[in-house]
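I am writing to request your help with a piece of structural work I have in hand. I am sending you one protein, given as its amino acid sequence and as whole-number tokens for its backbone shapes. Kindly check, if you would, that the fold set down in the tokens agrees with what the sequence suggests. You will find the record immediately after this paragraph:
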Amino acid sequence: MKKALMIASVLFIAVVSTACINNMAVQELNNKAAEYMQKGDYESAMNRLQASLDLDSTMYETYYNLGVAAINANKYEKAIEALEGGIKIKPDYADFYYSLGLAQTSLADEILENSEKELSEGEKNAEIVNTEPKKELSDEDKAKVADLKKQAAENLTKYLEMNPNGEDKQTVEELIKEINSYSEESSAKVEE
């Protein structure tokens, strides 16, 4: 009996020690990520934050910071993934919805811009601007853009509902209006 109790005690101490070491490593990674963010090195910050999540995937703040770093690095799909992961942990954190709406809008805009910047191989080499008509968006891309814009408006609206007296209320309302006007224009073009 004494032997079993002693083994259980040693195992308990080992688990607690491992958890403490793990928490210290997560904190160190998050601190280093914050330093990189302040320097504008978003890729390095993202790497540290991802490593932190690999050690402890329960910290909603890490998901949020990873999402913000990814937005700043123009990695919108990664930002969306991180922010949605954080929402699963803490759905009542309003800033998730704001940042998610921005990431979704930015990804939709990136898809639209990329379709407008298609250059032929020869023009890329000569660095000549394409004078041909702009490339049409594929039906798949049109649907993705429309879905991203719709989700962005919903997330930004949710942010305002959770933060009705925020200093950025007017800016967010204008962004929602801009997103909705795009959606209305797209619907009108489809009906023509």
